């Protein structure tokens, strides 16, 4: 994916403590964890959309003087999972989290556009104009990747006018019959857009943008108690052609913005099927580290893949 022309803001949050005593989040009364993990969360234990907590795991770096536990969700180092950034008997990292922000689109004014034609009615009033840009086409396919997924018009306050490809995307220049349409011309290596009236995409006040992939996602149907329900279409699978997409705009997230314990509602979560792609659920923390100071033999929490223990490696990997 191309990351040019915008800034990713990274904020690592940590605090220093003299003695490695775990000061946990305060216990809140009457808070029920909807994803309470009572076991290792084997595949198939939960119905659709499956329990997302089953993809969580932790790893341990215990060799040498610097030791820590690592999580694949929320805080990468967390005060509630020992050891948290320890150097000998001292704990120097209270928590380590991640904050990032990316824009939802790249303004058309960043690229050079040439007017092809302006269509007028019988009274000479401009109906729509067609523009082409080689720069925008090159950015769209830079580094052998597809870096944009659509065109946004009337961008304002992190929203705008977007229509699905079946409506807005045309096969050729000859198919354009109104404003708010676009074409990828692979023969001439140009991106072509049509704008209402004589709106000039070279100007920032045209409020036109090329949409980044992360800003166009399945539309939220409802926010349930246990999960967010998105419109994944008939096949109920994310990122397929029958999804009902929606323009969300810029995205910012802090990896562990949660006051609950356990942190079941963190902004950042382990990827779907991490439990088979990055680790497995057959070996638990207690199995390998139960005799160490970090946990006990009864700990059934899944482990991230550890280079020294093949039993922790993902079963879905061929390497």
Task: Report what the structure shows.
The chain is built from 4 helices and 20 strands. The strands form 7 sheets. Strands 1-2-3-4 form a 4-stranded antiparallel beta sheet, with no helix packed on it. A 4-stranded antiparallel beta sheet has the order 6-13-9-10, with no helix packed on it. 6% of the residues lie in helices and 27% in strands. The chain is mainly β. Mean pLDDT is 83; it is low at 1-22 and 40-47. The chain has helices at 134-140, 165-168, 274-277, 285-289; strands at residues 58-61, 66-71, 86-87, 90-91, 99-102, 105-107, 114-120, 126-133, 150-156, 159-161, 181-185, 190-196, 209-211, 216-218, 220-223, 228-230, 245-247, 251-254, 279-284, 302-304. It has 2 domains: 9-103 and 250-319, no CATH class; 105-215, no CATH class. It is elongated. The two termini are 24 Å apart.
Average pLDDT, rounded to a whole number, is 83
Order of helices and strands: EEEEEEEEHEEHEEEEEEEEHEHE
Strand content: 25-35%
> How would you sum up the global shape?
elongated
Topology summary:
Layout lengths: L57 E4 L4 E6 L14 E2 L2 E2 L7 E4 L2 E3 L6 E7 L5 E8 H7 L9 E7 L2 E3 L3 H4 L12 E5 L4 E7 L12 E3 L4 E3 L1 E4 L4 E3 L14 E3 L3 E4 L19 H4 L1 E6 H5 L12 E3 L15
Antiparallel strand pairs: 1-2, 2-3, 3-4, 5-18, 6-13, 7-8, 8-12, 9-10, 9-13, 11-12, 14-17, 15-16, 19-20
């Amino acid at each position: 994916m191309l990351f040019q022309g915008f800034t990713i803001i990274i904020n690592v949050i940590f605090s220093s403590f003299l003695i490695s005593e775990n000061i946990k989040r305060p216990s809140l009364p009457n808070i029920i964890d909807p994803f309470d993990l009572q076991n290792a969360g084997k595949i198939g234990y939960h119905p659709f959309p499956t329990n997302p907590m089953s993809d969580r795991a932790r790893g341990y770096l215990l060799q040498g003087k610097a030791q820590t536990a690592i999580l694949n969700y929320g805080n990468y180092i967390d005060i509630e999972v020992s050891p948290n950034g320890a150097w000998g008997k001292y704990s120097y990292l209270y928590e380590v989290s991640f904050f990032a922000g990316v824009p939802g689109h790249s303004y058309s004014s960043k690229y050079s556009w040439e007017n092809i034609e302006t269509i007028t009615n019988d009274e000479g009033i401009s109906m729509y104009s067609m523009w082409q840009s080689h720069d925008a086409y090159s950015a769209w396919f830079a580094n052998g990747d597809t870096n944009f997924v659509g065109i946004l018009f009337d961008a304002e306050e992190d929203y705008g006018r977007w229509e699905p490809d079946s409506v807005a995307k045309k096969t050729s220049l000859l198919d354009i019959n109104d404003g708010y349409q676009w074409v990828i011309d692979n023969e001439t290596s140009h991106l072509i857009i049509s704008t209402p009236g004589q709106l000039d995409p070279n100007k920032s006040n045209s409020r036109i943008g090329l949409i980044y992939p992360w800003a166009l996602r399945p539309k939220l149907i409802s926010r349930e108690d246990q999960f967010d329900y998105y419109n994944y279409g008939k096949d109920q699978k994310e990122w397929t052609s029958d999804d009902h997409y929606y323009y969300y705009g810029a995205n910012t997230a802090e990896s562990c913005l949660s006051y609950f314990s356990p942190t079941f509602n963190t902004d950042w979560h382990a990827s779907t099927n991490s439990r088979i792609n990055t680790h497995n659920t057959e070996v638990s923390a207690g199995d390998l580290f139960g005799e160490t100071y970090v946990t006990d033999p009864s700990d059934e929490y899944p482990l991230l893949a550890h280079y020294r223990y093949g039993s922790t490696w993902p079963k879905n990997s061929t390497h």
